[in-house]
Design goal:
The protein is of the alpha/beta class. It is built from 16 helices and 17 strands. The two termini are 47 Å apart.
Length: 436
């Protein structure tokens, strides 16, 4: 007997990976813990006859010949198959593991371990199905596509890979139904979730952690609310934060911290694993027992400070040394210099102090006015937007957009140490695995 299992609170990627594993192995009993995400629950309610699931207690464990675990290796997240996990070291059955999360100290080690850092673990199984030339029914292709969409933000999350996109493409050829995919990906918050979302939005505070602004919220709920992961994701989108941590306290002495991030420099899963929880790069959670909200937040912030996020900073990207011009330089000479250097603008410095910025557009405007015989100071911009060398690159990008400028002089202790241009920023933002 083949048993296929995943972690508690299964999302679409976890459930889809189970479906893919069942197809890959020609059958198997899918053990699904409770609760599952609201979206998976809604899907199963409509498709019960296609995707039969069971509990560990429904099985004769002595008859298990193979255990397939998907979307996790961490035994702490496998409470729904705790008896099989206990038997795993005895190797009375074959153990196969499929995962895309980083390793932890509590991981199962299978006889075969398929672990790669993809956007969705479903992608890994779809690749095997494709390689073995399986034909996937429309409903199964749809749920597999839902798994990849859900865990990659429809291919927009920073940890998405080209392989995730290729897997989705193949599933479309297999008949994945886009209408149904859109139906189940559409966020529909229940009244209790909407109330929780409003509570989170009212409590959000942005706090600098080692120079990076991260959003936190502490929320006291008067009753248990399912789907707090979806609430947190919606709060992150609504606030436009790079990262958000919400501490939920619901009667009793438990505090659940749920983290979400869109920035590539924040690894939520790694942080939560260090605190005793789990997750992947963009999402994770941990539950603390017998602890106050202040203590929980203190542990979280201490861990963030101990192993801080490492966003690209201006000093990593800026050009240095800086070519500058004096305010007395004739515009005709400036025009020749810009052409020779291939620059579109330059800082203007007098006696070591930044006094302005001049661009090719400034020179062109001077030409149109008939002022090309004048000096740089006659057309330079004196109200200069600057940026600190240790500022996150994201902050520089926001400043460029807000000020509508193509370059930012970079200062350290008031001294010009570099120049950051649109070209510099774009080069990093479009480089694989970098930026933000």
């Amino acid at each position: 007997m083949i048993v296929i299992a995943t972690h508690d609170h299964a999302d679409f990627d976890a459930f889809a990976a189970m479906v893919a594993a069942r197809r890959l192995h020609g059958g198997g009993h899918m053990v699904l813990g409770r609760p599952v995400s609201d979206y998976v629950h809604a899907f199963l309610s409509l498709h019960k006859e296609h995707f039969t699931v069971c509990k560990e207690s429904d099985l004769d464990l002595d008859q298990v010949t193979k255990l397939v675990v998907v979307d996790t290796r961490d035994i702490r997240r496998l409470k729904n198959i705790k008896e099989l996990v206990k038997r795993a070291p005895e190797r009375t059955f074959d153990l196969e593991v499929w995962d895309h999360h980083c390793a932890s100290g509590d991981d199962l080690v299978g006889d075969r371990n398929y672990v790669e850092p993809l956007g969705a673990v479903t992608t890994l199984l779809v690749e095997r199905l494709r390689a073995e030339d399986h034909q996937i029914p429309e409903i199964e292709a749809t749920v597999l596509a839902l798994g990849i969409h859900a865990d990659t933000g429809s291919l927009t999350f920073p940890y998405t890979t080209p392989r995730d996109a290729e897997a989705l493409s193949w599933l479309l050829f297999q008949g994945a139904n886009l209408k149904m995919i859109g139906h189940y990906l559409r966020t529909r918050l229940k009244p209790a979730q909407r109330d929780a979302l409003l509570a989170v939005m009212a409590k959000v505070q942005v706090q600098p952690i080692v120079g990076v602004e991260i959003a936190f919220a502490e929320v006291q709920l008067d009753r248990q609310v399912t789907g707090l992961a979806e609430v947190t994701s919606e709060a992150l989108k609504a606030g436009g934060h790079d990262a958000l941590f919400v501490l939920y306290k619901v009667r009793g002495n438990r505090i659940t911290v749920i983290g979400r991030a869109t920035a590539r420099w924040m690894d939520i899963g790694a942080l939560m694993r260090r605190l005793g929880g789990g997750g992947h790069r963009g999402a994770g959670a941990v539950t603390f027992k017998a602890i106050s909200p202040d203590e929980a937040r203190g542990r979280l912030q201490a861990e963030l400070s101990r192993e801080p996020p490492q966003p690209a900073r201006v000093s990593d990207v800026m050009s240095t040394p800086v070519e500058t011009v004096a305010p007395e330089l004739p515009l005709t000479e400036l025009e020749r210099l810009l052409s020779e250097l291939g620059h579109t603008g330059m800082p203007v410095v007098r006696r070591g102090k930044l006094v302005g910025v001049v661009s090719k557009r400034d020179v062109q405007r001077a030409h149109r006015r008939g002022d090309s015989h004048r000096q740089v100071r006659s057309c330079m911009s004196q109200n200069v937007a600057t940026i600190a060398a240790d500022a996150p690159l994201d902050a520089a990008l926001h400043r460029m957009v807000a000020k509508d400028v193509g370059r930012l002089p970079v200062l350290t202790d008031g001294k010009l140490v570099g120049i950051l241009t649109r070209t510099d920023v774009l080069r990093v933002l479009y480089a694989p695995g970098k930026g933000e």
